[in-house]
Design goal:
The complex is a heterodimer of chains A (116) and B (111).
Chain A (H helix, E strand, L loop, with lengths): L3 E3 L3 E4 L5 E7 L5 E8 L3 E8 L6 E2 L6 E7 L2 E6 L8 E8 L11 E2 L3 E5 L1
Parallel strand pairs in A: 2-11
Antiparallel strand pairs in A: 1-3, 3-8, 4-5, 4-9, 5-6, 7-8, 9-10, 9-11
Chain B lengths: L2 E3 L3 E5 L4 E8 L6 E6 L6 E6 L3 E5 L2 E6 L4 E6 L8 E8 L7 E3 L3 E6 L1
Parallel strand pairs in B: 2-11
Antiparallel strand pairs in B: 1-3, 3-8, 4-5, 4-9, 6-7, 7-8, 9-10, 9-11
The chains are: A mainly beta (116), B mainly beta (111).
Chain lengths: 116, 111
């Protein structure tokens, strides 16, 4: 059974704190993604990675950074959390090598982050 | 740029048929995906279309017209458990293999 797991389902942090959201996939996928999901705005891409140590900005990277030291793990970092970063964060992965465009993107269960 | 439009909300009754539309604008089209997302859960894959026409998968079917930039998801014999958000997505044209999603259509099924 394929799996994308995220370190926490719920997280509450204070403004200014450094926050780490961890994501692990067991499918040996090359590509990993971080999205945030907000009511009325849908899913928006923050950062993605297509290989170990490689990272690229998505549509809304401001205030975030990422780390991919191992193939199976992709971390999202909020350097100094702010209230407007309160959101649902979803990690996803997708195959790369040998895969086709039709290959689905698998999502983790999400982390609901509240910044007070 | 890329743009995906879907209705925000739809309602239907058990046993009925509902069609959820999606229009998109993108360069370098590489297929269109439909995902289902129940409240508080992760999106799960429903279908992928890259050629024009209808693809049927049980109670769910998905249609694509590339010339019109249009797709729909057809749900038959609706059940209460089909109450969820339905997300239309295409491959992001500037972000590798990432998907870019529409804002989703929230479907409410009543008895």
């Amino acid at each position: 059974d394929v799996k994308v797991t995220q370190s926490s389902r719920y997280l509450v942090k204070r403004t200014g704190e450094k926050v780490f959201l961890e994501c692990v996939q067991d499918m040996d996928h090359e590509n990993m993604f971080w999205y945030r999901q907000d009511p009325g705005l849908g899913l928006r891409l923050i950062y993605f990675s297509y290989d170990v140590k490689m990272k690229e900005k998505g549509d809304i990277p401001e205030g975030y950074s990422v780390s991919r030291e191992k193939k199976e793990r992709f971390s999202l970092i909020l350097e100094s959390a702010s209230t407007n970063q309160t959101s649902m964060y979803l990690c996803a992965s997708r195959t790369g090598t040998g895969g086709g465009d039709r290959d689905e993107q698998f999502f983790g269960p999400g982390t609901r982050l509240t910044v007070l | 740029g890329q743009n995906i439009d879907q209705p925000t909300e739809m309602t239907a009754t058990e046993g009925a048929i509902v069609q959820i539309n999606c229009t998109y604008q993108t360069s370098g089209f590489n297929g269109l995906f439909w995902y289902q997302q129940h409240a508080g859960e992760a999106p799960t894959f429903l279908s992928y279309n890259v050629l024009d026409g209808l693809e049927e998968k049980g109670r769910f079917s998905s249609f694509l017209s590339r010339s019109k930039g249009y797709s729909y998801l057809l749900l038959k014999e609706l059940q209460m458990k089909d109450s969820a958000s339905y997300l239309c997505a295409v491959i992001h044209n500037q972000a590798g293999t990432a998907l870019i999603f529409g804002k989703g259509t929230t479907l409410s099924v009543s008895s």
